[in-house]
Amino acid sequence: MELPAARTAQWHGALADTVRAGVSTPALIKVWTIWLALAVLLAGNTAGVASTTENHAPGSSAQRSLYDGDDSPPWLLAVGRLQVPGIRYRDGRRRHYLEDCSGTLVGTPGAVFVLTAWHCFADYRDLSQRILFTLGDHEAGSLTSEAVKVADGGGMHADWALLRLTDPGVSALARPLRLSPTRGDPTRTIVMAGDSREPARASDQRRLSYDPACRITAQRKATTESDCSARKGASGGAVVQSLPGAEPVLLGVISEGDGNGISIYVPTAVFLGQVKSHLGR
């Protein structure tokens, strides 16, 4: 802890004046204790201001954007809303609910496959209930198709799932993204996108939003950590990187995060071999 030099000199001068005034030793110790406590408090406040400033780096919630169709990347149209009916037991009673997630159209042109997160299906028990995937702007118009899960990673350790759409017409709204066979370039920015709830909007209203310029911060065996900001509902959404002279590629599937600058995703390079056989059909 280092205090400003001017403040330190001021306190030392005040202490010297107190000594010259003939203040008793017990009283002097008490005064010095109070000044030391104030020094610690002020130093802590200074550190807190610095920390708050650092939180406004690229990837913080202040950097997020809503899809507007004009300035947004065209590939965002491949990211849509996924609704999975689930069942949870609470107080001995069975309760039905909808799990809101995101997914990305993948494969070749005319593709009928969607990549999303495994944990979106953790409570999917009634197979008679339909899984729905929606592409398109929710205000200008959209198309919805039923989806069927054809493959997944089997748990949070491999948080990905591949779905097949029953209506191929939905894919006409967007060009599918190609899965990256590599982990991506950590020296270049990435984009994280999902259909989620934004704090500034009504709690029940979801919009396609994205963090336009965040970075990879750590790469592990099965996951990659980033400083991207992803909100509730973005699970299963897209992590994309664009390299000079190349088309954007899907780097991974959003798995989890704190909504304010820390997000973890599962790289497509980890499970590409497991989905290739399905995408090739």
Describe how the helices and strands are arranged.
Layout: H1 5-20, H2 25-54, E1 65-66, E2 79-90, E3 93-106, E4 113-116, E5 131-135, E6 143-152, E7 161-165, E8 178-179, E9 190-197, E10 206-214, E11 216-219, E12 224-226, E13 238-241, E14 249-257, E15 263-267, H3 268-279
Parallel strand pairs: 8-14
Antiparallel strand pairs: 1-10, 2-3, 2-5, 3-4, 4-7, 5-6, 6-7, 9-10, 9-13, 11-12, 12-15, 13-14, 14-15
Helix pairs in contact: 1-2
Kindly provide the radius of gyration, computed on alpha-carbon positions and rounded to a whole number of angstroms. Answer: 26 Å
Low-confidence stretches: 1-21, 28-62
Inertia-based shape: globular
DSSP strand count: 15
Spell out the helices and strands N to C.
HHEEEEEEEEEEEEEEEH
Helix content: 10-25%
User: Largest sheet at a glance?
Assistant: 9 strands, mixed
State which percent range the strand residues make up: 25-35%
Query: Average pLDDT, to the nearest integer?
Result: 78
Structural class from helices and strands?
alpha+beta
The helix count comes to 3
First-to-last CA distance: 63 Å
